[in-house]
């Protein structure tokens, strides 16, 4: 469990540092890896975290802080890395603390230096309140709080001038790193009597800094080790004379990047500088649309490829697409060069315009077959979208495009549960925008009001609706007026005023049908379906739900089809049609799982628990309620959307307890609480052993996949062999084994094998 990235290149050396860091983690709850930029703090932290992962029941989670704009977004960054959705209202830091309070978890805070005060304050708060939490931080300066254990990360070991024999060099980490990266650049490269002295001197001249060594090694594609050494020595002398006050290692790193820049062609240098406008990763279409300049678009790919070859640009495959990013030091260097050209502001505006077009296109195609692709793209582009919004906030006169971006992000923010983030951007942008009756402002007010209502802030939602109503009347556009009326209906629904909500939704729906987009029509239909279902008007709820389903299915949409099926299932359950409710909600859950819409999935798990109670499966219901509660703690309970949910939950829980008793109910509920999201979905969809559904004796049961893994464990297979047999990663196989041990209360693989033998007569799927 966790989000650590897989290593793409070999990890060289650092045996002492890895051992010491793991020892410190065993005795201290805050360990800080401190050192200069480019020394390899992040890579060391990831290796230490991966090695220690088995010790943390709730996983190891990486929080990348390098792209944060300011201290105020730190808590959001941690919550986002932990995949917490922002449905519940309240102080974000308090909510984060509550979430981590009883979890055994390692948090890796990477690149804290520019938010060190905030990182220190948050770390101290979390460590005081969360007894099983441990933090591993990387930074250029310690956090300087009580209980912190600081490990200074040195450069890689380098040979002394007199110890440069060919046989002795492989023992030095810097040389090993240079040779391995050189062999990647030039497969036939190896240390020889002719080049080993130059290699040793290169590593020594670069002070063993991994980034500098990797940049130097790739130059073997165009020159020999001796030529690299000569060029490097000349550049060192120039830089030392030009900047005597800077620390020597900073001079070295700067020199290496400066030297890399000098080896680039004019086109490569120009593109390098322009690429620094991106925050985080980016794709080729963005490079072509933003950074091409005078370079013909058809030539951009060749220059990008050349920058990858020279290790200026890093290539990474993310799902079906290829993305690129600049290392932080390289990006900062490029930004300096871009500022020298005087085109930084204009390029940031082009960057903003391009990402505005991206999110607007995403909104336009949301009800369509590319929805899942768009969700993945926006997940990957979050940092760039935030950079575009930040530009709109900080540049005079740019708030209106920012409102367009924010309004277009509404379906994404809603699907991802990023309610607080959406409200923060909208609040700031509305505050900087002149209060005129423009379409941009009214649409932004609509989105902000709905997000506020979903977040539980009814007072703010109503104030935004009131302002929107005044501006919409002044504007005179009937579609904008319908949006505001629909927002008023949402406010009424969240407050439990169902007659008022239904009247508003029914007033807006004909306008959406006549003049609105497919997305707006879906909003209108969903509002009527939800409220009529709450009122017990099954005929209208079914009619609207069927229209949503037909509309979304015809266009290959998933998010709102999942919501419509959830609403239809709830309405069927209220009418006593348990089989129909079960079918609808399971279909919706599959779609919610596909797009990782956990707010909708949480509601689906809850309704399936009610169905289980009515079907005589009380223990299964308790387990599903526990799973729903676990998801709700991370994403927020959908009771803000469906106010009667808590009442139905209490009634069904009481019925289940009456059937199986408090002890069995609590045990099953606790088991559901500690089930992963994927396993909870599998449980709800009955994708497990057949005897697991009906048992009420408290005996733990395994999912279908866990049963397969357990049988292979009983056959004596290792995790690696299991992974190969089932065509899964070794880490996934390990995770399944750990889940099996936890479910069965065992501590060894031998016990799993004995359990399999004992249950050999059980029916298998």
TrEMBL record:
One GO term (biological process): regulation of DNA-templated transcription
SUPFAM superfamilies noted in UniProt: C-terminal effector domain of the bipartite response regulators, P-loop containing nucleoside triphosphate hydrolases, TPR-like
Protein's UniProt keywords contain Transferase: yes
> Matching SMART domains, A to Z?
HTH_LUXR (SM00421)
Molecular function, one GO term? ADP binding
Q: Which InterPro entries match?
A: HTH_77 (IPR058852), NB-ARC (IPR002182), P-loop_NTPase (IPR027417), Sig_transdc_resp-reg_C-effctor (IPR016032), TPR-like_helical_dom_sf (IPR011990), Tscrpt_reg_LuxR_C (IPR000792), WH-like_DNA-bd_sf (IPR036388)
Q: Record's CDD domains?
A: LuxR_C_like
Instruction: Write down the superkingdom of origin.
Output: Bacteria
Keywords on record = Kinase, Transferase
Indicate the segments forming the HTH luxR-type domain, all copies: 695-760
Q: What is this protein called?
A: Possible protein kinase/ transcriptional regulator, LuxR family
């Amino acid at each position: 469990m966790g989000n650590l990235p897989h290593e793409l290149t070999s990890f060289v050396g650092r045996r002492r540092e890895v051992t010491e860091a793991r020892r410190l983690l065993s005795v201290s709850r805050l360990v800080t890896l401190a050192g200069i930029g480019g020394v390899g703090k992040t890579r060391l932290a990831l290796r230490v975290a991966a090695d220690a992962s088995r010790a943390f029941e709730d996983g190891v989670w990486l929080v990348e802080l390098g792209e944060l704009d300011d201290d105020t977004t730190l808590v959001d960054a941690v919550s986002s890395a932990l995949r917490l959705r922002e449905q519940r209202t309240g102080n974000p830091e308090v909510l984060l603390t509550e979430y981590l309070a009883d979890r055994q978890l390692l948090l890796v805070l990477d690149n804290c230096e520019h938010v060190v005060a905030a990182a220190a304050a948050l770390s101290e708060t979390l460590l005081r309140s969360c007894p099983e939490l441990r933090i591993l931080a990387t930074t250029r300066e310690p956090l300087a709080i009580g209980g912190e254990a600081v490990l200074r990360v040195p450069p890689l070991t380098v040979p002394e001038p007199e110890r440069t024999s060919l046989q002795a060099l492989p023992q030095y980490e810097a040389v090993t790193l240079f040779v391995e990266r050189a062999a990647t650049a030039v497969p036939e490269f190896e240390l020889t009597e002719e080049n080993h002295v130059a290699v040793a001197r290169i590593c020594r001249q670069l002070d063993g800094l991994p980034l500098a060594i990797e940049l130097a090694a790739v130059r073997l594609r165009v020159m020999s080790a001796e030529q690299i050494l000569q060029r490097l020595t000349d550049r060192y002398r120039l830089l030392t004379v030009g900047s005597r006050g800077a620390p020597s290692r900073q001079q070295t790193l700067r020199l290496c990047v400066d030297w890399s820049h000098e080896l680039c062609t004019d086109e490569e240098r120009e593109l390098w500088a322009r690429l620094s406008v991106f925050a985080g990763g980016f794709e080729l279409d963005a490079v072509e649309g933003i950074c091409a300049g005078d370079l013909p678009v058809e030539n951009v790919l060749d220059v990008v490829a050349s920058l990858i070859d020279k290790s200026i640009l890093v290539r990474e495959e993310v799902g079906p697409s290829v993305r690129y990013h600049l290392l932080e030091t390289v990006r900062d260097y490029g930004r300096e060069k871009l500022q020298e050209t005087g085109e930084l502001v204009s390029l940031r505006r082009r960057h903003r315009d391009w990402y505005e077009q991206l999110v607007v296109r995403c909104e336009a195609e949301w009800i369509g077959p590319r929805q899942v692709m768009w969700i993945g793209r926006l997940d990957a582009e979050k940092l760039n979208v935030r950079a575009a919004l930040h530009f709109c906030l900080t540049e005079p006169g740019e708030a209106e495009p920012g409102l367009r971006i924010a309004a277009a992000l509404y379906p994404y923010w809603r699907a991802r549960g990023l309610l607080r983030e959406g409200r923060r951007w909208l609040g700031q942008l509305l505050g900087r925008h002149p209060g005129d009756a423009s379409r941009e402002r009214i649409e932004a007010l609509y989105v902000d009001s709905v997000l506020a209502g979903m977040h539980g802030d009814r007072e703010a939602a109503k104030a935004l609706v009131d302002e929107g109503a005044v501006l919409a009347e002044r504007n005179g556009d009937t579609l904008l007026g319908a949006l505001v009326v629909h927002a008023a209906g949402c406010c009424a629904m969240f407050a439990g005023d169902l007659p008022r909500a239904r009247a508003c939704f029914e007033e807006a729906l004909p306008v959406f049908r006549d003049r609105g987009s497919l997305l707006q029509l879906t909003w209108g239909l969903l509002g009527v379906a939800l409220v009529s279902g709450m009122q017990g008007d099954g005929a209208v709820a079914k009619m609207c739900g069927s229209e949503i389903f037909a509309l979304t299915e015809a266009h290959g949409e998933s998010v709102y089809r999942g919501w419509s099926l959830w609403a239809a299932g709830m309405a069927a359950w209220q009418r006593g049609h348990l089989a129909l409710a079960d079918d609808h909600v399971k279909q919706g859950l599959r779609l919610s799982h596909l797009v990782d819409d956990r707010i909708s999935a949480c509601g689906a798990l809850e309704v399936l628990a009610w169905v289980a109670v009515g079907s005589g499966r009380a223990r299964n219901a308790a387990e599903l309620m526990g799973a729903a509660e676990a998801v709700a703690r991370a994403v927020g309970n959908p009771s803000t959307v469906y106010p009667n949910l808590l009442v139905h939950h209490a009634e069904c829980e009481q019925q289940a307890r009456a059937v199986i008793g408090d002890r069995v109910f609590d045990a099953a509920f606790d088991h559901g609480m500690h089930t992963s999201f994927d396993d909870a979905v599998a449980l709800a969809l009955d994708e497990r052993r057949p005897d697991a559904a009906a048992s009420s004796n408290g005996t733990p049961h395994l999912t279908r996949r866990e049963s397969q893994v357990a049988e292979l464990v009983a056959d004596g297979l290792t995790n690696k062999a299991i992974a190969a047999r089932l065509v899964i990663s070794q880490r996934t196989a390990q995770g399944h084994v750990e889940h099996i041990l936890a479910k069965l209360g065992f501590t060894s693989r031998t016990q799993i094998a004995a359990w399999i033998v004992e249950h050999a007569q059980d029916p298998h799927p």
